[in-house]
Specification:
The protein is α/β, with parallel strands linked by helices and about 280 residues long. It has helices at about 10-25, 40-45, 50-55, 70-80, 90-105, 135-145, 160-185, 190-205, 210-220, 230-245, 250-265, 275-280; strands spanning about 5-10, 25-30, 45-50, 60-65, 80-85, 105-115, 125-130, 150. The chain folds into two domains: about 5-155, Rossmann fold, CATH 3.40.50; about 160-280, N-(1-d-carboxylethyl)-l-norvaline Dehydrogenase, domain 2 (Orthogonal Bundle), CATH 1.10.1040.10. It contains twelve helices and eight strands. Helix 5 links the parallel strand 5 (about 80-85) and strand 6 (about 105-115). Helix 7 (about 160-185) crosses helix 8 (about 190-205) and helix 10 (about 230-245) runs antiparallel to helix 11. The longest helix is centred in the middle third of the chain and has 28 residues, at about 160-185. The radius of gyration is 23 Å and the shape is elongated. It binds NADPH dihydro-nicotinamide-adenine-dinucleotide phosphate.
Length: about 280
């Protein structure tokens, strides 16, 4: 049968989670600090709990609040049997929440949502989990409603680590794209004209990742494609041109500084993958 699911937190994300669960026919009980936000969900059949504890009497409880610090007192008041924590934080915060849950006798899974609220319940949504394997298996069907569930292992901090690693790729990609738009924009090129080229370039760049990963794994940085010193020089041209065109150059300058240090450490003739030695 369908499970009773409690949802703590009805911000943009929590409301999307509760909505998807309702859509899948689950019995959903919700709690939020500002109860008015529950209105649309109640109209769709959710029950509004007056306290976190009332929502936590459900078979499984999902929590999605702004931060771990905000969440902790809510969790202590709720005291659920099984908790799937979907609030974003650091691996250390996730591990300390898991330690608290264990001491409170709560079966704990820590998840990170690799989607925006509008993507929840669609094929564009993937959620990474770590923590109790038994709780994850038991709740797999409920969690599948939200997005493709991926279990990373028993370490409750792993999902947060993956989250930050993946978001780091997103943020540096977006910063690079914005730098590019600003740069071509200095000559009147509109985003709509440039973006298709950026997209196909990004997929070509993505094609290099497995090779870079293999070099990082082996520690063998020989290249007959493109040496680091040529790339560092190219970054120098980007910094120089950004400044000459009157725009900020801090993003390429930061990457250039890192590449230059790797060159100075003796990696000039190596592949870009060798920069990881400097990062480490
Ligand atoms: P919102 O700002 O929309 O919602 C924040 C939630 O936290 C609301 O339920 C809010 O309650 C509650 N809250 C804030 N302060 C307090 C407090 N002092 N006491 C009790 N409750 C409080 O954020 P999102 O829903 O977007 O994000 C929630 C979590 O989901 C974050 O950790 C975020 O990183 C993560 N996430 C969000 C994604 C997104 O695209 N939005 C993507 C992936 C993860 P109230 O309604 O009363 O203000």
């Amino acid at each position: 049968g369908k499970k009773q699911v409690g949802v703590l937190g009805l911000g943009r994300m929590g409301a999307a989670l509760a909505g998807a669960l309702l859509g899948a026919g689950h019995d959903v009980v919700v709690w939020n600090r500002s109860p008015l936000k529950a209105g649309p969900l109640v109209d769709r059949g959710a029950r509004l709990a007056a306290t976190p504890a009332e929502a936590a009497s459900a078979d499984v409880v999902l929590s999605c609040l702004s931060t771990y610090d905000i969440q902790q007192p809510v969790l202590e008041a709720a005291s659920p049997k099984v908790l799937v924590n979907l609030t974003s934080g650091t691996p250390a915060e996730a591990r300390s929440a898991a330690a608290w849950a264990s001491s409170a006798g709560i079966d704990y899974v820590d998840g990170v949502i690799m989607a925006v609220p509008q993507g929840i319940g669609t094929a564009q949504s993937r959620i990474l989990y770590g923590g109790s394997p038994t709780a994850f298996s038991a709740q797999r069907e409920v969690l599948s409603v939200l997005g493709e569930p991926v279990f990373l292992g028993e370490d409750a901090g792993l999902a947060a680590l993956y989250d930050l690693a993946l978001l780091g790729i997103m943020w540096s990609t977006m910063a690079g794209y914005l730098q590019a738009l600003a740069l071509v924009g200095t000559e009147g090129v509109a985003p709509a004209a440039f973006t298709p080229m950026a997209l196909s370039w990004l997929s070509a760049v993505g094609g290099f990742l497995p090779g870079i990963g293999a070099q990082v794994a082996s520690g063998e940085y020989a290249t007959d494609v493109s040496a680091l010193d040529i790339n560092a020089a190219g970054l120098g041209l980007l910094v120089e041109t950004s400044r000459a065109q009157g725009i900020d150059a801090s993003v390429p300058a930061a990457v250039r500084e890192l590449f230059d240090r790797a060159v100075a450490s003796g990696h000039g003739a190596h592949a870009i993958a060798s920069v990881i030695e400097e990062i480490r």
